[in-house]
Design a protein that fits this description.
eight-stranded antiparallel β-barrel, alpha+beta, 1 helix, Porin, 45% strand, 2 domains, 10 strands
């Protein structure tokens, strides 16, 4: 009986020591946990926040473009090309491109005025808006066909900026063909990926 009593007291003592140790750890950790709760969200927001504006998108950007355009008669156009865009940092831009159009296995350049020195299409311009979170939208106006009163094609795009404005990714959200062409477009998957290559004075 005496041995059993001593063993029981030893077990209770060991249990009390464990409880005291746990209490000390809890008291030590509580201020740290409280500080994490107070500062954690704020620190996350500061590290993940991005502040952009129109000046973030400034200079020359080289991009590859591609995708498909679907027509009501079942025809599918495949587009692939390259684009050089110049953004002025204030909401305006110009661009020149060379885009190929493939229909039923036949590939031709898309129509439009051509720079005789480079072979690229020109007379393309528009406006853009960069939001604080480095997303934005832009609208491209293409040269009109050589017909009195005709208007050129118009594309509307959404974009995101990465790498402090050095990377540009776009997706087309609206396609309006030239006024001389029947608008039978039923869908499209046009997009581009580009990066900054420098400013032109």
């Amino acid at each position: 009986m005496r041995t059993t009593g001593i063993t029981s007291i030893s077990r209770r003592s060991a249990h009390l020591l464990k409880i005291k140790s746990l209490v000390r750890k809890t008291v030590t950790l509580s201020p740290i946990c409280l500080l994490s709760l107070l500062l954690g969200p704020r620190a996350y927001a500061n590290s993940g926040s991005a502040v952009c504006d129109n000046s973030t998108l400034n200079g020359e950007y080289a991009s590859t473009v591609g995708g498909e355009i679907y027509h009501s008669d079942g025809t599918v156009e495949t587009r692939q090309g390259i684009v050089m865009m110049h953004f002025d940092g204030s909401g305006k831009f110009t661009q020149t491109d060379y885009v190929l159009d493939t229909i039923n296995g036949v590939t031709t350049p898309t129509p439009g005025p051509i720079d005789p020195n480079t072979g690229f299409q020109n007379h393309e311009a528009g406006a853009y808006k960069v939001d604080r979170d480095c997303t934005g939208h832009l609208e491209i106006h293409f040269a009109p066909p050589p017909v009195n009163g005709a208007t050129g094609a118009v594309l509307q795009l959404y974009f995101v900026l990465g790498n402090h404005g050095a990377d540009l990714r776009t997706v087309v959200t609206s396609v309006t063909p030239p006024s001389t062409v029947l608008n039978d477009i039923t869908g499209f998957t046009l997009h581009s990926e580009g990066s900054q290559v420098g400013d032109i004075p």
